[in-house]
Amino acid sequence: MVSRNCLLAELTGTRLHCLSISTAGSLRILEEARQRGTPVTCSVTPHHLALEDECMQRFDSNWKVNPPLRTRRDREALKDGLRRGVVTVLTSDHQPHCTYEKEVELDDAPCGAAGLEVALGVFLTELVHGGVLGLERLVALLTEEPARLLRVAGGTLVPGSPADVTVIDPNREWVVDPGQFLSKSHNTPVHRNAVERAGGAHHCGGP
Fold first, then answer.
1. For residue range 91-122, what is the model confidence (pLDDT) as tens digits?
2. d(CA 147, CA 153)
3. CATH 3.20.20.140 fits 2-206, yes or no
4. Which are the catalytic amino acids?
5. Cα–Cα–Cα angle for 90, 143, 177, rounded to 5 degrees
């Protein structure tokens, strides 16, 4: 599908953004399309950077996401794509579900997980503390780059812009506890098995 969509974008000159890229093959196709001058971009999610398909051996529906978790090779390829600038946007992939929807047989459970409240912690751990990106570039991938892609105001602290600010301590360790989520849904694939670095305060829409 990624290959088909890149060909269509190339033929029509239409901008294309591919969400939740998860494999080395898809990343290679996108990079080749960009080298040909096709206006394509892509984003990756926190769980595809932090987790691998071996997690599914637990048959826990909290690990069931779309696209599915991939191999270690794919995970490392995504990080390399971020390092080289092929991936230009990071997203939370926030697709939570009610507990009763996930507490069923794996085949019957919907895909998706709460990503908003764990995304920053995962990105800091996997990318900044993992030596993939600097903190400044991470912030740009979460703010400036999405705003530029969508052609909307925001993602910047220039005078006159809305003061949407998150204050964090990048060295603070946080064990993920869904019971502390503000979201009404608490299903997350990083529950109990990840220590992340995040925290702080938020200021939205202020002067």
1. 999 888 888 888 889 899 889 888 888 888 88
2. 6
3. yes
4. 93
5. 60
